[in-house]
Amino acid sequence: MKLSGCAAIVVAGLVVVSGAGAAAESERVPGGPTAVAIMKDVDGKAVGKVVLNETPSGILHITAMFDGLPPGEHGFHVHENGLCEPTFAAAGGHFAPEGHDHGIDVKNGAHAGDLPNLHVPLNGKLILEVFSKTLHLAPDDKNSLIGGSGRALVIHENADDYHSQPSGDAGGRIACGVIVPVTQNADGFQSYPEEMPSDRK
């Protein structure tokens, strides 16, 4: 994958690489189980996709590609329920199976589902890569994103301040996507749902 105008950040067990105006070169994803979330706004319009891959090291590789988000900073979290109903309230609260408080700036933080803010440029397009040691795809793992009732990814209207309880004072929910397992053929290529938005260059 090529990234232009990239920045790398290390925060709370997450390694983050972000950039604007980038595109995926291939849908080949090596390693273990893979899952995907189609992110849609409150009008049902697809505004991006998130691909999650369990790597051989056990670290989860998350690649998020967005197009059509409002410019500015937006909170981005894994929520406890695999549901995205109108207003996205059905997604519930942040995914926090270990009972931690919210935010990396809190002594007992952070939630397993706390992810870095999205910094969306004026054109509304963004690629974000995150490596997480706390999130997993194995259904029997307590931090699994696909076990039980499933999980959802939610984007908020404002930035997460990384300390306010229970969710960083990030405001309303502007986009949501249910995390679902993805099949992989013998060549290592993924089969995405038909409604998956294509990569935009």
What does this structure look like?
InterPro entries: SOD-like_Cu/Zn_dom_sf, SOD_Cu/Zn_/chaperone, SOD_Cu/Zn_BS, SOD_Cu_Zn_dom. It comes from Pseudovibrio axinellae. GO terms for molecular function: copper ion binding; superoxide dismutase activity. Pfam families: Sod_Cu (PF00080). It catalyses: 2 superoxide + 2 H(+) = H2O2 + O2. The chain has a single domain, classed as Superoxide dismutase, copper/zinc binding domain (Immunoglobulin-like), CATH 2.60.40.200. It is mainly β and 201 residues long. Strands 1-2-8-5-4-3-10-9-6-7 form a 10-stranded antiparallel β-sheet, with no helix packed on it. It is built from no helices and 12 strands. 0% of the residues lie in helices and 38% in strands. The protein is globular, with a radius of gyration of 15 Å.
CATH structural fold name:
Immunoglobulin-like
What is the rounded distance between the termini? Answer: 13 Å
Say which CATH homologous superfamily is assigned: Superoxide dismutase, copper/zinc binding domain
| Unreliable residue runs | 1-13, 21-29, 186-190, 192-201
Question: What structural class do you assign from the helix and strand content?
Answer: mainly beta
For the record, the count of structural domains works out to 1
Largest sheet: 10 strands, antiparallel
Provide the gyration radius in Å. 15 Å
CATH architecture: Sandwich
Beta-strand content bin: 35-45%
Broad CATH class: Mainly Beta
Report the strand count. 12
Any idea what the shape is?
globular
Query: What count of helical segments does DSSP give?
Result: 0
Mean pLDDT: 75
Order of helices and strands: EEEEEEEEEEEE
Strand order of the largest sheet: 1-2-8-5-4-3-10-9-6-7
Helical residues, percent: under 10%
Pfam families: Sod_Cu
Signal peptide: 1-22
Cofactor: Cu cation; Zn(2+)
Domain Superoxide dismutase copper/zinc binding: 48-179
